[in-house]
Each structure stands twice: as structure tokens, then as C-alpha cells.
Amino acid sequence: MSDIKATVVDHPLIQHKLTIMRKKETPSKDFRQLLEEIAMLMTYEVTRDFPLEEIEIETPVAKCKAKVLAGKKVGVVPILRAGLGLLNGVVNMIPSARVGHIGMYRDPATLKPVEYYCKLPGDVAERTLIVVDPMLATGGSSAAALTQLKNKGAKHMILMCLVAAPEGIKVINEEHPDVPVYVAAIDERLNEKGYIVPGLGDAGDRIFGTL
After folding, report:
1. What pLDDT does residue 110 have?
2. I need a labelling partner for 38 at 20 to 30 A (CA). Which of 26, 52, 184, 200 fits?
3. What are phi and psi of 150, to 5 degrees?
4. Which of 7, 47, 147, 202 is catalytic?
């Protein structure tokens, strides 16, 4: 699928940590820690184009002009439950971000997304929302979450995932062409159960030790 659009954040540290996460013998404790670390590294790239403004400050030596973020309001919205694994990493980098939650799960029979929870900051329309979910497989849950956020008034969103299948990226590109997609890796395909191949298994189960 050469026509899909996504930014692959292929920094060597991210790729190294992702390889350890993929290993089936990696325990939940290490998996969670690595996911948080990758989230921090990916946030660096996701926020690369955030606008800056110049202010005057005083260092211990002299006054000078320096740059700060230009009053941009940010929100982080994990797609429950696996998205929680990325949350702390993003908030560590953007401590002032407000946090919303949206609950989506994939029906194992139909593979269609089902929403069960949504709680967002009141000023969601004024914020750039970084929507996080480790796996972008069929794309159904992420696309449904983005639709729900738009219905709640969100105007500016970025989707940040760890591993994606080409099929999932294609769905987001088609249903939400205005939403940039950032991933650490684009894998080969989906299998008959809708899992990413080679992937890393069920991210939620591996994060929370519910295998």
C-alpha cells in the first residue's frame, strides 16, 4: 500500500526499544517501561512543528530573549485501555497537557469498534489533541475514536501509535485525511484475526499482564 500516509519515527533508540518489546519473553514490567520511554521519544517528533514565541527573561548572568511554546493548548487522549501505556510518556514531556479518555473496544466477532466511555476537557475545541493507542490494526477503533472526538468539538488532532498495519493507516487516511498519523513502525499486514503481523501481540494484555 504505497499510497498510505504516515510519519515513521525511526530514531535508533525507538527501534531498539521496540525490538525488545516485540520479544514474546519480555515481561509486563519491562514492556510498560519501554512503551513509556518510546512515547517520550515520539512526543519529541510529534511536537516538532508546534509554534514558538520570543520572550525576554533574565538569567543569573544577563537579560536575553528566549523562545517558549506560543500558548498552544494541548490535550492527550488515550484510547482505553491500551492507550494508557503511552499516556505518562507524553505527559512527562508536556506536563501542562489536559488528559481526556475515550473507551473503545473491538468486538471479537465483527472486529467492529464499540464505544463505552468518553470524558474530555471542556475546552476540547481549543486544544490540539494527541490521541494515543499502541496498535493501529484494522483502524476501526481509532477511526471511531477520532469521529467521536470531532463530534465533541475537537478540531485539531494527531494520532500517535506504536505499531501500525498498512490497512489501519489506510482507513485513517480515508476517513480522517486531516489527522496526521505518527508511528514507530509499519508492519507487514493483518492476519485473519485482525492482529498485526509480526506485531507484538495484544498490547493491552502485555501492558497489564492479563495474558
Report:
1. 78
2. 52
3. -65, -40
4. 202
In the DSSP assignment, the letter for residue 173 is H
- Catalytic residue list contains 110: yes
Amino acid of residue 197: V
From the list 10, 106, 189, 210, the catalytic residue is 106
pTM of the predicted model as reported, rounded to 2 decimal places: 0.90
Q: 130, 142, 133: which is closest to 161 by C-alpha?
A: 133
Q: Mean per-residue pLDDT for 178-197?
A: 94
Contact (Cβ atoms closer than 8 angstroms) between residue 156 and residue 133: no
Question: What integer pLDDT is reported at residue 2 of this predicted model?
Answer: 59
Query: For residues 188 and 197, is the Cβ–Cβ distance under 8 A?
Result: yes
Q: Cell numbers 485513517 label which residue?
A: 172
Dump pLDDT digits (tens) for 76-123.
999 988 899 999 999 999 999 999 999 977 677 876 778 889 999 989
**First CA to last CA distance, the chain:** 32
Q: Is 205 a catalytic residue?
A: yes
Rounded Cα distance between 19 and 26, Å, is 10
Place of cell 503511552: 86
Length of the chain equals 211
Number of C-beta neighbours around residue 77 at 10 A: 32
106 catalytic per annotation: yes
